[in-house]
Write a structure and sequence with these properties.
Layout (H helix, E strand, L loop, with lengths): L1 E5 L7 H10 L3 E4 L4 H10 L4 E4 L13 E6 L2 E6 L11 H9 L4 E3 L7 E7 L2 E7 L10 E8 L2 E9 L1
Parallel strand pairs: 1-2, 2-3, 5-6, 6-8
Antiparallel strand pairs: 1-9, 4-5, 7-8, 9-10
Amino acid sequence: MKIIVFSDSHRELEGMRQVIGREKPDYVFHLGDHDSDAEQISRDYPALAVAMVRGNCDGWSDTPKTLCFVLGGVRFFLCHGHTLGVKGGYLRAEYAALEQNADVLLFGHTHEAYYACEERGGRRLYVLNPGSCGCSWEPSYGRIVVDRGTIREIGYFKV
């Protein structure tokens, strides 16, 4: 199963459409700023499952601030990151994900792509910020491939 992760699209939809057309994902996760972009992608690709969280630029949206769920045997924790102070470091976000027993932490907000596999509390935690797919000199996105409960690939790539 292939998951594409976007964040900080800021009303720039064309890059997301290009990536979806090229990657042919099973799922899309959008990590906020602007959740309305994720709603539009959902309308554009009605057969594509889209999960989204609210960012700091999403105003009075009723989209949740965080999501935690299991997909393909892997537990994901999604957030935008602004409420967890990710511009000052990732530790609070990592511990929030671990409190939810997550295997993968996904966040945005910084507009800077980042990937690591951390050991926290005796557990492995994959940490991915896909960067900004909409308002960056080098737009980027995340890709995760899950097979039978195992992460086969995770990282970020240029749009």
